[in-house]
Amino acid sequence: MKKFAGLIIRSLAIAVVFGAVGLSVNMLSSKALPLVYVPPPEMEISGVKVPLVNEHTARTYFDDGETSFLDTRKPEDYSESHVKGSLSLSPDDVTEAFPDVQPLLPLDNRIVLYCYGPECDMAERVAGFMISMGYKKLVIMSAGLRPWEAAGYPVDGSRARERHQKQGHGAHVQDRKPARGEN
Amino acid sequence: MKYVVLGARLLIGALFVYASIYKVFDPASFAGSVRNYLIVPSAWSNLIALTLPWVELAAGIFLILGIETRPSALLTTGMLGMFLGAIVYAYSIGLDIDCGCFGSAAGSSGRIGLLTIARDSSLFLASAFVLLMDRGDFSISAILGSRFRLLNA
């Protein structure tokens, strides 16, 4: 028992000492990171400022009738689950797929783009394309779909429908006011 | 048996050194990988990215050299268990993200999947094997000790 406690203490000592080394190196670095990460409020894409919002702010846009959601993940993941009423536009085939969704995306609509998570760059890449097509009111839901689902906000797709059937009622699948341009 | 332990020790040590290098030099990218897992609050991601890679590097070097072998093996086993848990969690909730194991989030170190789970499980077992079976053979102190004994004889 004493031997085991000694082992843990020596392990912790290594972790503390070298963790402190890491923090000291960061303090001396010219590109020092802040110890507490604060997400940036916006990013600039092709000269356009695109706000980065969390799922709660995105939810406030959801049923205002002037917002379209754009899922930039792979189409197979979109089929499984997506923000209810969102359209699929993945960066890999954005040029080919855009004409299909363009009629549903009026230029003056607010477009909320999302992908898998905070560091996923797919929403950013599609935003760049949308800007080149003349869209200006773009917003990126930076944490991606997962926190939206976790918050119980409206989703659709095969997984949501499966859950709906199992529960026998409409869990998480709520109606929304369609955005302009959507049927 | 001691050669098997030595092999596992060197393997885990070398992998930890290799995996920690990019994280030590590019903590911002690693912080991005940490945030992608959606496990810890994103506010903590920088602190983790600034400290964990140095612990990985130290544990890896210590394992290779045989300095504080068992405490280092406890650290590598604990970290591998933690990484494995994070990958299994991310996989189970369907996150399609880069594992951030040996490269940046934007790099190509491999999407999480059954292969990364199998790889991390094997490494976890190898590290636990070193932790349980290492008897101090081929460590720096053992090698230096035998040299001194020869000189004093």
Q: Characteristics of this structure?
A:
heterodimer; A: 183 residues; alpha/beta; Oxidized Rhodanese, domain 1; two-stranded antiparallel ribbon; B: 153 residues; mainly alpha; elongated
Can you give a write-up of this model?
By secondary structure, chain A is of the alpha/beta class. Chain A has helices spanning 2-28, 55-62, 75-80, 94-101, 122-132, 145-150, 158-167; strands at residues 42-45, 48-53, 67-71, 82-83, 87-88, 110-114, 138-141, 155-156. In chain A, the strands form two sheets. A six-stranded mixed sheet of chain A has the order 1-2-7-6-3-5. In chain A, strands 4-8 form a two-stranded antiparallel sheet. In chain A, a hairpin with a 2-residue loop joins strand 1 (42-45) and strand 2. Chain A starts with a helix and ends in a 16-residue tail after the last helix. The relative contact order of chain A is 0.17. Chain B is mostly helical and 153 residues long. Chain B has six helices and no strands. Chain B is elongated, with a radius of gyration of 17 Å. The model of chain B has no long low-confidence stretch (mean pLDDT 84). At the A-B interface, helix 1 of A face helix 2, helix 3 and helix 4 of B.
CATH architecture of the largest domain in chain A: 3-Layer(aba) Sandwich
Name the CATH class of the largest domain in chain A: Alpha Beta
What is the count of DSSP helices of chain B, taking H or I runs of 4+ residues? 6
Number of strands of chain B: 0
Shape call of chain B: elongated
Biggest sheet architecture of chain A: 6 strands, mixed
Label the structural class of chain B: mainly alpha
Spatially, the strands of the biggest sheet of chain A line up as: 1-2-7-6-3-5
Number of separate structural domains of chain A: 2
Q: DSSP strand (E) fraction of chain B?
A: under 5%
Overall number of domains of chain B: 1
